[in-house]
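In the previous chapter we treated chains in isolation. Here, by contrast, the input contains two separate entities that must be folded as one system, with a combined length of 751 residues.
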Amino acid sequence: MHPQRLTPKERLQLSRQVMPAQDAAQRRANFAEVNLGLPETLALIEADRCLQCKNPRCMLGCPVNVNIPRFLELLSQGRLPEAARSLLHDNALPAITGRVCPQEIQCECECIRAKKGESVAVGHLERFVADWARAHPEAVPVLTAPPSGRRVAIVGSGPAGLTAAGELARNGHDVTVYEALHRPGGVLVYGIPEFRLPKQIVDQEIDRLRQAGVKIECNVVIGRTYTVPELRARFDAVFIANGAGLPAFMNIPGENLKGVYTANEYLTRVNLMAAFAPDADTPVLRPRCAVIVGGGNVAMDAARTARRLGAERVVIAYRRTKAEMPARVEEVHHAEEEGIDFELLCAPLEILGTDRKWVRGLRCVRMQLGEPDASGRRRPVPIPDSEFVIECDMVVSALGTRANPLLTATCRDLKLNERGNIEVDENGLTSMPGVFAGGDIVRGAATVILAMGDGKRAAIAIERYLLETKA
Amino acid sequence: MHLITAKTRLSPNVTRLDVQAPRIAEIRRAGQFVIVRRGEGAERIPLTIADSDPAAGTITLVIQAVGKSTRDLVALEPGEAIRDIAGPLGHPTELITAGRALCIGGGVGTAVVHPIAQALARAGVNVTSIVGGRSREWVILEAELRRCGDVVVCTDDGSYGRKGFVTEAATDYLKSGRCDIVYAVGPVPMMRAVANLTRPLGVRTIVSLNPLMVDGTGMCGGCRVSVDGKALFACVDGPEFDGHRVDFDLLAERQTTYREFEQAAAARPDHDCRIGLGQR
């Protein structure tokens, strides 16, 4: 227990506590988690750095509106069970978001302390409380309500689907989640690597949902095994959160050479299919030099995975500068620490191959930043006569994803936008009554937490819809 | 879990498994496939649905044991179970409803052609099947195909039926009269040869491709094939394509991506590498 409450002045004097991490030289060769978690003593000090603002801006920055000051206050007082209950009430998957959220552009960027110095480490504290809750399940009982007799189908067991499932099950609804792959978790298991998000944590969160009564059926591909209209006929409401799906390509010559992967394929082989193990049934290529094209979290994940699988040189090729990279700051920092090379202002033109059709290099052109484009970012333009070749034997394209038409093509009543994403209103309602959607199938490629926000919002709207349609 | 209800050996390395998968048995159509994962830690492999019995709730898988994963799968016995089966995946076959169709199956590809021949025969199409194998013992599903129409069997060594390649028998058939569509499934060289044969004749030719695949839902892009110079995914855009537009060289090349891994897995004393037709 903490002796007594600090004054704001005393709080201001505390500096941000540092997350202990596995040594970079050591972790380059293993898949164990990089961040080790704050020890309790440091977590309590860090929680004391929160000024308990009257108008907490951090909450506005949070897509799922976690009451941050409340759980930090409870934590700073050493009241861990209450802190855990507070956090889990607001966020169904805090052990996950505490690890993968881009806090620096959400809660932490809104933190008043960031104006003059460093923000409170909300993400690290969220992780600390969530991990404490995982270790003390008896302190955070799974809440359930009496059965409502209403049935909800959820398509996809990624962050949006799991969040909605948790919220709806808590209200007593009979929830069935359909997952296309053999293991639930969506991007949390096929995409995000073990060293950033241990799969055991995902499994634990899913177990918790099962305890709350959520049913999860794997190997069911909506759009093939069942269609949305078929689900709609059997359930009172449907939430579609099947992810974005189709990988985007660079559309340059040589993309079909052997040794060219999409990040989706590369990461799925390594994460979902455990190809990192030497005796795994599913193979993955082990290059000497890998070039990853892209600047997002997925590019960092692919690069750091290649490093761990023994690549001597790993290069991230990105056409803008580090400042424009969409990846989390911490991921870029960790990648640098692990010796990943960054080729910035560099755009791929062609993948070069051997006569046996294996990758042997990536021909690139140097870019410079020109006028801002529609997105407000300065558009990269090629510098004439600046072509060069990066010699490599693997190229991974991590350029985001497009909407997968597998589900939508078998449900003509769903209104789509010109990019094939499902159109929804502010509550996540689609053009079909009782059918809601969220996550990447609506947004295009976004983040775990935005998908969770959609899941939470849709669950509230579904709750209202179920009330309105009550027989 | 999907219980195996029956197991039959069709040729020295091709095995038929009947497996419980009621929903898939009920709705699958010719040309569709499933992704199968034998157990914990096993690979996801795509297999065409060769047949189904909706009343019994079973589907038929015909598996050529060429690598570790397929060998593990055919080692299962009735009463044992396959852990994961997802599907039915891919587009159903583009079928004609009248006229004359030629179905060509090479080796285990015959199992892919069979449900197509079945569906055509049911629609009232005049079906002729040409099936090939290295020798008599490698010819599969002949009796089943005879229920759909005429069958010409070809063996490389002449030990059964005609001696020679399926393309030679196909040439004769195409000379003999009108043909509205050709379906050809087998090793890449066979499909390429059939496509080259029918292209100048202008006979529409459908081939079923089986590139490497992981998820089977369009997510990974590993199964991309080049059709008319465009990258398409066998899992969601196929698996059947217009054979006159497929880049078979690329397909064959990409199929060798993991050869070293396969050889390492195969370098076990119990393994006798016996890949069927056309791999010489």
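Residues 448-468 of chain A form the longest helix (21 residues). DSSP finds 19 helices and 15 strands in chain A. Compare these points with the single-chain example from earlier in the chapter.
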